[in-house]
């Protein structure tokens, strides 16, 4: 006989490559009277899901991750927490006031035990970036991921495996043009449910913003769709990003708020004079040559205008 000495509170990790050993080990445990009533399973991928503004989220199940690469998707973040179960639709990418990802995300886990284990990933790495992980609240998650927009709810309940965000669309772009954009070229893919699988983001007055979300039925369509990043519709190059249900909710919520599109008033000259200027020698004295300065930009220039100006070089921005 084998003396196992295993208690009911011990954790057994099964490695598929050691199947024969595990089979013998399990036989010994059963022989000694151990039972396996509630085995815990770990999800191998993040499942999509929708969160409403009225939903209650446990404060002990949420973390905030900072320092994420701006191009990181919800699947990338779920892989960072591999071995822990993230709730369905439980990755909410935070956006800046300009609607771009700011390197933060809120992650909702299925229980407190998994949340506590997630906190131990603090300062672990994604590629060459270390990620900070802190406690967050259920309210934090709802503020980012929750939504009441009926169009978004109907769009997100179609059961798509992949959501792609499009930026830089012509303001008169149609759903038919979006479908054709993905169906032509070297890696064609079909939009789920045709024109119903395209959701344009509009301002409160109904005008286009140049953004849209597109649904694809299966995971295999994701790399095909993203391969069309920076291709043209008309004369405009289109940016493509893997998106999430939470991001759709967040963008649609903001698009219906008139304050989102208000142009801020310029600071009075009295305030501008109080802003300290950084001396030139402090800027250029570093040994690393990985930054550039742009001067002479139009006052109304936004991040997307700078990315368009940089062209293919924008892909190297960290």
From TrEMBL:
InterPro entries tied to this protein = ESRP, Fusilli_RRM2, Nucleotide-bd_a/b_plait_sf, RBD_domain_sf, RRM_dom
Report the coiled-coil segments: none
Q: What are the alphabetically sorted keywords of the record?
A: Repeat, RNA-binding
Which PROSITE patterns did the record assign?
Answer: RRM
Residue ranges constituting the RRM domain according to the UniProt record: 61-138, 162-245
Annotated Gene Ontology MF terms? Answer: RNA binding
Q: Which domain of life is it from?
A: Eukaryota
Tell me the protein's name: RRM domain-containing protein
The scientific name of the source species is Cuerna arida
């Amino acid at each position: 006989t084998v003396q196992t000495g295993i208690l009911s509170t011990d954790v057994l990790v099964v490695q598929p490559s050691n199947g024969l050993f595990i089979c013998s080990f399990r036989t010994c445990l059963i022989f000694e009277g151990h039972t396996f009533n509630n085995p815990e399973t770990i999800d191998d991928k993040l499942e999509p899901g929708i969160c409403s503004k009225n939903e209650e989220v446990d404060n002990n199940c949420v973390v905030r991750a900072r320092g994420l690469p701006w191009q990181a998707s919800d699947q990338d973040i779920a892989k960072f927490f591999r071995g822990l179960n993230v709730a369905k639709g439980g990755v909410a990418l935070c956006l800046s006031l300009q609607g771009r990802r700011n390197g933060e995300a809120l992650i909702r886990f299925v229980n407190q035990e998994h949340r506590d284990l997630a906190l131990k990933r603090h300062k672990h790495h994604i590629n060459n970036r270390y990620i900070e992980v802190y406690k967050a609240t259920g309210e934090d998650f709802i503020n980012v991921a929750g939504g009441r927009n009926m169009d978004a709810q109907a769009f997100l309940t179609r059961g798509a495996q992949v959501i792609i965000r499009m930026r830089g669309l012509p303001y008169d772009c149609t759903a038919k043009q979006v479908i054709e954009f993905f169906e032509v070229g070297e890696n064609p893919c079909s939009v789920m449910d045709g024109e119903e699988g395209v959701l344009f983001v509009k301002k409160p007055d109904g005008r286009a913003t140049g953004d849209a979300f597109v649904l694809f039925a299966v995971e295999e369509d994701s790399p095909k769709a993203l391969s069309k990043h920076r291709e043209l519709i008309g004369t405009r190059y289109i940016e493509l990003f893997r998106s999430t249900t939470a991001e759709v909710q967040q963008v649609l919520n903001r698009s219906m708020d008139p304050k989102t599109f208000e142009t801020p008033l310029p600071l009075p000259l009295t305030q501008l004079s109080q802003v300290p200027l950084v001396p030139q020698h402090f800027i250029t004295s570093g040994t690393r040559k990985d930054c550039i300065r742009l001067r002479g930009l139009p006052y109304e220039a936004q991040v997307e205008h700078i990315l368009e100006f940089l062209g293919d070089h924008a892909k190297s921005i960290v």
